Amino acid sequence: MRKDVRILLVGEPKVGKTSLIMSLVSEEFPDEVPLRAEEITIPADVTPERVPTHIVDYSEAEQSDEQLYQEISKANVICIVYSVNNKKSIEKVTSHWIPLINDRTDKDSRVPLILVGNKSDLVEHSSMETILPIMNQYQDIETCVECSAKNLKNISELFYYAQKAVLHPTGPLYCPEEKELKPSCIKALTRIFKVSDLDNDGILNDNELNFFQRTCFNTPLAPQALEDVKNVVRRNMTDGVKDNGLTLKGFLFLHTLFIQRGRHETTWTVLRRFGYDDDLELTQEYLFPMIKIPPDCTTELNHNAYLFLQSVFDKHDKDRDCALSPEEVRDLFKVFPYMPWGPDVNNTVCTNDQGWITYQGYLSQWTLTTYLDVQRSLEYLGYLGYSIIYEQESQAAAITVTRNKRIDLQKKQTQRSVFRCNVLGARDSGKSGFLQTFLGKNLQQQRRIREDHKSLYAISTTYVYGQEKYLLLHEVMPDFDFLSEADLACDVVCLVYDINNPRSFEYCAKVYKQYFIDSKTPCVVIAAKSDLHEVRQHYSLSPHEFCRKHKLHPPQPFTCNITNAPTKDIYTRLTTMAMYPHARLRCMCACNRCTYCLCQNLLKLELLRNIKAQLRRVIFNRCSHKRFWLPLCLFLLHAFTLC
Fold first, then answer.
1. In 3-state terms, what secondary structure has residue 59?
2. Which of the 8 DSSP states describes residue 195?
3. Which of 402, 493, 547, 563 has fewest C-beta within 10 Å?
4. In contact, 266 and 212? CB cutoff 8 Å
5. What is the pTM of this model?
6. pLDDT band at residue 601 under the 50/70/90 scheme
7. Residue 355, Ramachandran bin (φ over 0: left; ψ between -120 and 50: alpha; else beta)
């Protein structure tokens, strides 16, 4: 909505332009009327729309044509004043003033016009019969008001309509010739309907209508008022009400009715509550709210955001198979101006046997977007109406900004849920296979992936001692001469080489020595294609000798050429190392180099400390309640299994 309104009054001399302004300000007809009133500003707190309003007078006797043109270009709305008892002033509306204004304004952003018939106290008849054909001829004319500066008749109404023409314009909403809503308005209201249709059944039931009413107007509808609304639609449309709920056609009809009856502000209130500007585009402030992300911090979705996304999934998973078919995905994104997910998403997250995105894959894709591009995630949540449905100031409330990683290292613990693993290796070393196996696809399934549908990312969940975490794998394209900060910024590194290619390990060794040898980032060497014959690597040290020299875990054998479902052990190990990077600073296990073993020992010690704390509670509290003992027994069983 505009921050202020600028109203310009033009017309022939002696029609009462100045008198109208002075009567509004002083609330009485002036004894002496100057040639031109000075520009006045009405404060926001005394206007119905709570917007500062500037009223500007024009006088042919005191101002030049150039000054008039400047005022026309600055005006938000122009009142063309004529005298109801002066036919010449009425004729000048169409022969002079409207053409003059149109010549001085852009065709794509015409200024709304209001025809003002002054001196209605001097005649007994109305001028509306003469004015109506003019209003039908020119679309820019919002309305016509007959008033009297002398009797103070309709003076306040005149300036209220002028404000309304700017703040709640008809032009973007309605086509008077066709007597129907414009396509851009239908598109916006359709999105609003789909967002408000919380169960996605194509009908706004009483609860959803009340939610919509409360969201837009801060008050629910009384039961009788709800029935009255539906009865109005029933009388005018056969398919406007279904199963005692409002259909999309009925919803659009109601807004058409509001506009036809001059209640544009009702439709505009709805549109602006759902983020639309005067051009019926979602505003930048709505789609991209401010969010501050300090260096070395990451972005994640919080609990409420996941609950919201779960509800969105549930309402579009029509067949309740915990997966989204292509049709269901398209239905979900109908509230978007474009399809946000490309075909590569099916190779980025987990899918079912039909290649449809599973519930876990759906949440993983949202997690990935939030981690890599939080602004894009905010935009997507905006289209879905997160801030409206959850009654938040903006969708930034859905985002958690994690603390600096250096603090995690110092405190030797983290609250993060998403960990990034950059996968490096020479060409054809098996990096893509390593990513796809994480998603549960074996070699045979991977061969069906089209070249243009491949993804450099794979994300899914792993469980580290009962805690669900997201592991994000990123395949870094091999370019040894240059690795960007994004290629190096991660929580754990995977160096992949092909055991059947004698020149494959050399790339991993050089990358490690140049970029990671002095880094605090944990590194793991993956011996890919372990089902093939292992050949001697053309490097001064064998992979095992290299790992021993640099105190790395021995190369981990890996293959995606399997028939059974792939195991996630190696990915759980990577997540564990990412969660406890401090563990590599000193080693407590016999091997003196194994980060993963160290993590296990540290976690076991932590579990034992928790066991002692639980037992201490039993001793001191002497608690015998079964609701306490059952969780304790389960906890002890889990702990001793791990130890």
1. coil
2. H
3. 563
4. no
5. 0.82
6. low
7. left
